[in-house]
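W.,

You were right to be curious about this one. When I first looked at the sequence I had no strong expectations either way, so I just let the prediction run and decided to look at it fresh. Below is the sequence, 184 residues in total, followed by the output.
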Amino acid sequence: MNEFSRMVDNLIKARKALPNEIAVLAVRFSKDRFREQAWLDKTKTPWVSRKQRREGGRRKSQTLLVNTGRLKRSIRKVKVSQKEVVIGTDVPYAEIHNNGGKITKIANVRSFTKKAHTRKAHSRTRNGNTESVSAQSVQSHTVQGHRRKMNLTIPQRQFIGSSATLAKDIENLIVDRFEKAMRP
């Protein structure tokens, strides 16, 4: 009888600890999406790549959805109880990146001062005509506040959501914890 009561105590402890362990597993799964640059459901679906390489050489990360790391760091346990586990983020742009979509807005741009710099020589296309632009020295100047139309399509790069692989990992975790609790 003593062994049976110890086993029951272990099962109760395992059941109490499971929601937190599941939340940690789900957060780790979501952060792994950033490392792998792909969503993983039944199969791995790579994220749509960036159209142009980021400027800034080695200083700028070429990893998708990572500039400062704020989005990735913000993924955390939102609610953990015996009945449900919720992970999420409080970053305002997380939803549009996770689900994809179209942004059509008018943005207000504040007045700012542009520092003096030298422009590199390059070529550009305007109205179907390609023209070359020589290197120039640009003086410091103030850009007045203005409004800018935004018309962007953001591709879906899912990092949080329902996944068959995550569900299987959670199931394996639960089975493993209860088997360990049942061992003599």
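Here's what jumped out at me. Residues 2-102+154-182 form one domain. And, maybe more interesting for your project: The longest strand covers residues 101-109.

Coffee later to discuss?

I.
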